[in-house]
Amino acid sequence: MGEPLRAYGDPVLGAFDLDFFDSGRRRRTALGSGWGVRFEDVAPVRGFRWNKGDRSLAGWYYAVTTGDHVGYESWLERDRLILLDFAPDVVGIASQPFWLHWREEAEKRRHAPDYFVRLADGRARVLDVRAEDDVDERTAEAFAATERACSAVGWEFAHVGVPDPVFMANLRWLARYRHRRCGRETDIVERLVEVFRQPHGLRAGARRPGTSCVSCRRCST
After folding, report:
1. Rounded distance, CA 95 to CA 61, Å?
2. Least confident stretch, 1-5, 181-185, 190-194
3. Do the Cβ atoms of 43 and 95 come closer than 8 Å?
4. Burial status of residue 207 (CB atoms within 10 A of its CB: 0-12, 13-18, 19 or more)
5. Interval 28-55: pLDDT, tens
6. How many angstroms separate the CA atoms of 176 and 70, rounded?
7. What are the angstrom distances between the C-alpha of 38 and each of 6, 34, 68, 119?
């Protein structure tokens, strides 16, 4: 791991290593040397696989924010991706961006956070997605270590759990219509924005511009 980088004023910078893909090649470096990498652009450090009988399902989600597919390892992570893709201040998203290596006493530990997010103002945010009921002692230790590492380099860290189910169900439904194939005329978009400046039922509001706002025409039937 190397000696702590005391020249930077924080021994944490040398107590952690970052292990990630850089231009297709695996690279490992101390946190104090590698924190400036654009992790929103890196490839995942592990694949997205699932086995028969697993409780959840891995896959790839098309994010409008990035114009590309972003991987997820569970339905809960997929829902978080949808939330991130709708967030107006999010401009970059990468899944499983790096392994974070450190020592706890004599034991070597490592953890791959679920997402690295770049915000419009340049800030970085690292997210771990796990339902509260699924956080055991060892997982909590990994989250705490990740938070220490993030704090040392000025990144935000958050452990996020299960979103409100009703809100999430609505967002999943709306998310499919953000794909480029569902683009509509600018005047329709402007009229919809004007209609929904005031509270309306979804179907009633969608009918107000005078034409269907979705390609499947559900709102007009």
Report:
1. 11
2. 1-5
3. no
4. middle
5. 999 999 999 999 999 999 988 777 777 7
6. 15
7. 24, 10, 16, 12
CB 126 within 8 Å of CB 95:
no
In 3D space, the residue among 23, 18, 24 whose CA is nearest the CA of residue 98 turns out to be 18
List pLDDT tens digits, range 49-64.
Answer: 777 777 778 999 999 9
d(CA 128, CA 142): 10
Closest residue by Cα to residue 95 from 76, 77, 114: 114
Instruction: Identify residue 217 by its one-letter amino acid code.
Output: R
Does residue 161 contact residue 131 with C-beta atoms inside 8 Å? yes
Residues 82-138 pLDDT 10s? 999 999 999 999 999 999 999 988 899 999 999 999 999 999 999 999 999 999 999
Say how far apart CA 92 and CA 49 lie, in whole Å.
Answer: 23
- C-alpha angle with apex 120: 115 to 126, nearest 5 degrees? 20
Rounded Cα distance, 115 and 50, in Å? 19
| Count of beta carbons in the 10 Å neighbourhood of residue 129 | 22
> Comparing C-alpha atoms, which of 71, 73, 53 is closest to residue 62?
71
Provide the token pair at 110: 């490592």
Q: Which two tokens stand for residue 121?
A: 């103002």
Q: Sheet holding 115-119: strands in order across?
A: 90-95, 115-119, 124-129, 156-160
Give residue 56's identity as a one-letter amino acid code: S
Angle between helices 165-175 and 75-86 (to 10 degrees): 70
